[in-house]
Amino acid sequence: MNRIDDLERIQLALQAAARAVRPFTSGDVAVEIKAGRGDPVTAADRAADAVLREILLQRGEGWLSEESADDRVRLSCRRVWVVDPIDGTREFVAGIPEWCISIGLVESGVPVAGGIFNPATRELILGSLDTGVTYNGKRAEARDRGTLDGAEVLASRSEVERGEWRGFEGRSFTIKPCGSVAYKMARVAAGKSDATWTLVPKSEWDVAGGTALVRAAGGRVTMANGSEPPFNQPEPDLPNLVAAGPGTADAILGLWGASSGR
């Protein structure tokens, strides 16, 4: 198995999952509310999950998906697929084209390859630490301003609507609300936006693919304290995340430190 084989499998799985979702109409689909967190789920999420598992998972590999029961066997696997069949289900349900299918490959706790496909906008971002990143088949790199001045920062649409980004308003960068965190990270990896960060906890399946892509594109992914996020953990939740070019990420961490008095 080599990285090109991994990327071919990722692309094949993304395309097949998109076909599985196609019969369901974004903006006109029945929705259920999960017990616990109260997150929405649709038959499209489940259809994509089944296809992804069938194509990606091979003997000896682990599996972590938002729409599958967590099999703790993954904790003993070196290679683990961490997927979100539809990241941005709220946007999918609302008919907002800011959702995607997200795949991350984690080896020994490190996201090494990933792919994100937004069927609504036809954006396909693929990459690995070994090969770099492509955006719709063309080479791409993360932008790095080294500063937040003039930057476009993608913010969670839900966080903005709840008022959680008010403390960042009126600064030297533009805040652009956007849905799926995986899609936001992929846009950063492709050099289409400068940065994104989260203010509420995210699950590994939300960000594993995006983390691999941002790093493969020369960017940096870190938590608010500057440490690298761990993956394939028993409890797959991360408190926050920053994704940007290395210098821009440093500027974000400096902003957060100043805001918190650290």
Detailed description of the structure:
The protein is built from 7 helices and 16 strands. With 262 residues, it is of the alpha+beta class. It folds into 2 domains: 3-140, Fructose-1,6-Bisphosphatase, subunit A, domain 1 (Fructose-1,6-Bisphosphatase, Chain A, domain 1); 152-260, D-Maltodextrin-Binding Protein, domain 2. A hairpin with a 6-residue loop joins strand 1 and strand 2. Helix 1 runs antiparallel to helix 2 and helix 5 runs parallel beside helix 6 (204-216). The protein starts with a helix and ends with a helix. The mean pLDDT is 95.
Any chance you could write out the topology, listing elements then pairs?
Elements: H1 3-21, E1 32-33, E2 40-41, H2 43-56, E3 62-65, E4 79-87, H3 89-94, E5 100-107, E6 110-118, E7 123-128, E8 132-135, E9 138-140, E10 152-156, H4 157-161, E11 174-178, H5 181-189, E12 195-198, E13 202-203, H6 204-216, E14 220-222, E15 237-238, E16 241-244, H7 246-260
Parallel strand pairs: 3-4, 10-11, 10-12
Antiparallel strand pairs: 1-2, 4-5, 5-6, 6-7, 7-8, 8-9, 12-16, 13-15, 14-16
Helix pairs in contact: 1-2, 5-6
Give the C-alpha Rg: 17 Å
Average of per-residue pLDDT values: 95
Number of helices: 7
Order of helices and strands: HEEHEEHEEEEEEHEHEEHEEEH
Can you tell me the residue ranges where pLDDT is under 50 for at least 5 consecutive residues? none
What share of residues is helical?
Answer: 25-40%
Tell me the CATH architecture of the largest domain.
2-Layer Sandwich
Strand order of the largest sheet: 3-4-5-6-7-8-9
Secondary-structure class: alpha+beta
Q: Quick one: CATH superfamily of the largest domain? A: Fructose-1,6-Bisphosphatase, subunit A, domain 1
Biggest beta-sheet profile:
7 strands, mixed
Query: How many strands?
Result: 16
The proportion of residues in beta strands is 25-35%
- For the record, the count of structural domains works out to 2
